[in-house]
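Reposting from the mailing list since nobody answered there.

I have sequence plus structure tokens for a pair of proteins and want to know whether others read the tokens the same way I do. The first protein:
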Amino acid sequence: MILRAETGASGTEKVEAGRPTLDDLFRRAAVHDPNALALVDPPNRPLFTDGVPRRLTYAQADRAISALAAKFCRAGLQADTLVAIQLPNTVEAVITLLAVLRAGMIAIPLPVLWRQHEIVAALRPLGAKAIVTASRIGNVSHADIAGEVGAELFSIRFVCGFGDDLPDGVLTLDDIFDTQTASTVPRTLRGGQAAEHVAVVTLDVTPAGRVPVARSHSELIAGGLALAQEIGVGPHMSLLAAIPPSSFAGLATSIVPWLFGGGCLSLHHGFDARAFAEQIGAGITTAIVPGPALAPLVKAGRLQSPTNVVALWRSPEQLNLSATWNGAARLIDVSAFGELGLVALPRDAEGLPAAMPLGPVGAPHDVETARGKTGTLLLRGAMVPKSAFPPGIERGAEPYLAADKEGFVETGFTCRLDDTDGTLSVSGPPGGIAVIGGYRFTTRDLEGQVSMADPAATIVALPGGLMAQKLAGSALDNAEVAAAILAQGGSPLIAAAFKARGLAA
């Protein structure tokens, strides 16, 4: 049993028996070895956001988490307030997530390529009261985008940011790293087990639209538990995560195993081959990478040193097309089914993807599979959410998460059943969904963003091999349409489909 830690008015911890929260797991690691290295920024950080690369020990990270949590509380934000987070894959993203949880609030991590159109659509039904972002990510001013979102959504009370030259009205947060003493975080008074309260809300994209998916601490921990056992976590572990913590899969494959082990988490943003080579050679024991990146990384000789490689497949129907694994590292494939659940399975003895069992998967059986009447994959288990969020959304017009009477949720992925060995293989993505570079779009949203820019323009999703799909757009003036999509707060991935001449991928 792990003890639950709470901070009293004096700043000292009180503990009581119970299921752990994510903050409990962090505190346990911090107490075990406060001077151990906890978080490491990408070495190329200045190329995509402000600030020099940070290296934080557990003690330094703990102080920063408490300082930010206290800042949220002093601003008047209450327990269970929803706080949106849109940050690059840097130390600040992890610190902010844990600070929101330490303050007893609920985090809504947002993908970094979402712009005003998608953020407003996602946050409007949820009533988020704060946004935390960066001054810039790449050459885009995300602080300006957050300010525009705050102006459009009445519920947003605070826009906060890390970085230089923040716009007026944006609260700077960089000072949380300067504190040398522990900040006092008011105790959160809520009934029931703290681990069963909602911790994170991620946004799934279904044919019906965006669906908020809420998970408790326990459900998040269940999502990362099987993988943590596969890679053998511990204080000796050094993780390199090229998957940002902006989705359930990102949290379950990087944050949760790191918190379980108490080792070091190095972060990699976007993809930069030179930075990745520098990081992977710095004693990394487990590398977490997008599945489609496996082949080029192997070809470049970048995955020779880790003990484990974790490949995340956001389009799991593409997994069986991947090359046979011949590397010295142990390869674990993680199939992500939107924001609903995931299945982690190591490669078989021949280096081929392992078959997904029908029924309970692996141990500790945190997910169970089934095949629906229409041939689609169903999931249930300790990691799979069961309730719609926010409460009462099912009585309105917005799409929401719905489980059947047996607790299974519909993923929309088609699958084939092998009766001889009782296994399932994913054969196709949900209908009406395009997956571009790990981002999901409904056909309706693709066409809607384009028609707002030019009613005569067209866009289609084409097969794209291991990268799932690619977008191709055509208009009388492609460059003008691309600029209009960006100007109206649309997705840069959709805008990129319109090249200066002809069809664009």
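The second protein, same order (residues first, tokens after):
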Amino acid sequence: MSASSCSLCAFVKSSIGRKIIVALTGLALVLFLAGHLTGNLLIYAGPDAFNEYAHFLHTFLHGMGVWIARIGLLVCLILHVWFTILLTKENKAARPKYAHDATVQAPKSSRMMIWSGLTILAFIVYHLLHFTIRIDSNLAKMGETSPWHMVIEGFQNPLVVIFYVIAMTLLCSHLSHGVASIFQTLGLRSKKTAGPIKFISKAYAGIVYLGFISIPLAVLLFGFGCEACK
């Protein structure tokens, strides 16, 4: 085994190495969420704008762009979840020495990270089945001609909307702690920057939360776009 391979193995097996992997993959996912939300909000601009956006995504680099992005995000997600689980196990194994202090100091969102993360993972699987793979034949037909109408139709089911809002709530909790942790792990947090970083983390989580839940709630509660689907 080469020296570089040994160094990589040592890095991956080390606690700091695993934390850096979680931070970098988390950063990639955070940036994706910002772009995904921006695109999703085009739903309010009407069918033409949203359908053009969907068409661009599926034709970029002759259709390869969206698959490159999906594979990259899937790898980031798997690494993020796997190494988070490993770090959680390590922390539990070392906890008897300082269990009381850790419990008192850790924010509730921090202690919920692993559970909120797994719930979000389950939601992502459902979300892909719902709007990407389109296991519902009616939505699949709409998606081929008008992704805008597909999204509007998909959010007219109250159970879907409730699950979506719950998942976004957990995502917000996850982000409010996770974004700040990224800064800390990458050595960008100090006493002077702790306050602004905490504000940015919570503000980002709030914007993502309100942005994503606004669409299903607008459809279900206020009938946004429903008239066009009839």
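Reply #1 (J.P.):
I read it the same way you do. Confidence is low (pLDDT under 50) at residues 98-107.
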